[in-house]
Amino acid sequence: MGACLCGSFAAAAAEPRGAVCFTFDDYHGTEWLEAVPLFRKYGAHATFFVVGEITPEKAGVMKKLQAAGHTVGLHSLHHCDAVPFIHEHSEEEYLRREIVPQLDACARYGLTIRSFAYPNNRRDEAADRMLFPYFDHLRAGRGPEKKTLYYPLATLPEKCPLGGTGIGSYYNSELAVLKEEIAHAAETDSVLVFFSHNIGPAGRIGRIDMPAEWLEELLAYARSLNVRLVGFEELNGLRSRGK
Ligand SMILES: [Zn+2]
């Protein structure tokens, strides 16, 4: 080997920088499980948010995802927007109707859950306070300003909302822009969150879903920059690193 270390080699040999969290909402059990080998190929973990009744079949998928190192979270029983529901009814009613039935079912199946994704990304601070007794990380969207959000790892709170950027044709995603965002997360040692839904070949998925080809390209790119690819439950371990 020559004496010259090119830039990319030096970067690859350096400490990990930042973290990217790929998250997937609703429920696509078969396709999510089919994507597990792709994540494994890049040493990556994702986060999967499950909506609806936790049936024995869903619980089985959730256990397999957790066993593969991924984070599994909840996404409400009826995909009911938290903020308008609380205004119309109450926090107690939202918890009773949307949150507790899913958590109780998970407990019965021996599933530990610490993450939640807001249906339709509708959140506010009052809703966060309502949910923090039950969850550590609350996934939302980018908010009304539609700005990509970065959360410096050094100051990441133990419990926090995390706004993500949608990936899919519906969100007008561009691969080059997504890569720039991953590079920025690396440079600033920050957490960057993406969300999508199903995962599959580009021709066979919907507009709010993740093309498997894109997922592979983004995982490979993040890996080349030494960016961590982690599920939400791994974030607190990163924040306390080096202390
Ligand atoms: Zn959803």
Mean pLDDT: 93
Question: How much of the residues is beta strand, in percent?
Answer: 15-25%
Low-confidence stretches: none
- CATH architectural grouping: Alpha-Beta Barrel
Helix content: 25-40%
The dominant shape is: globular
List how many beta strands DSSP finds. 12
Question: What's the CATH H-level homologous superfamily?
Answer: Glycoside hydrolase/deacetylase
The small-molecule ligands in this entry are: zinc ion
What is the rounded Rg? Answer: 18 Å
CATH class: Alpha Beta
CATH topology: TIM Barrel
Major sheet details: 7 strands, mixed
Distance between the termini: 37 Å
> Number of domains in the coordinates?
1
Fold topology:
Elements: H1 7-13, E1 19-24, H2 29-41, E2 47-50, H3 56-67, E3 71-74, H4 82-88, H5 91-108, E4 115-117, H6 125-131, E5 137-140, E6 151-152, E7 160-163, E8 165-166, H7 175-187, E9 190-196, E10 199-200, E11 210-211, H8 212-224, E12 228-229, H9 235-239
Parallel strand pairs: 1-2, 1-9, 1-12, 2-3, 4-5, 5-7, 8-9, 10-11
Antiparallel strand pairs: 6-9
Helix pairs in contact: 2-3, 4-5, 7-8
This protein binds zinc ion (ZN).
Zinc ion (ZN) binds next to loops.
Quick tags:
TIM Barrel, seven-stranded mixed β-sheet, three-stranded parallel β-sheet, 243 residues, alpha/beta
Describe the structure.
The protein is an alpha/beta fold and 243 residues long. The protein has a single domain (15-239), classed as Glycoside hydrolase/deacetylase (TIM Barrel), CATH 3.20.20.370. Helices cover 39% and strands 17% of the residues. Strands 1, 2, 3, 6, 8, 9 and 12 form a 7-stranded mixed beta sheet that branches. Strands 4-5-7 form a 3-stranded parallel beta sheet, with no helix packed on it. Helix 4 (82-88) packs across helix 5 and helix 7 (175-187) packs parallel to helix 8 (212-224). The longest helix is centred in the middle third of the chain and has 18 residues, at 91-108. The chain is globular and about 45 Å long. It starts with 6 loop residues before the first helix and ends with a helix. The structure holds zinc ion (ZN). Residues 25-26, 51, 75, 79, 119 line the site of zinc ion.
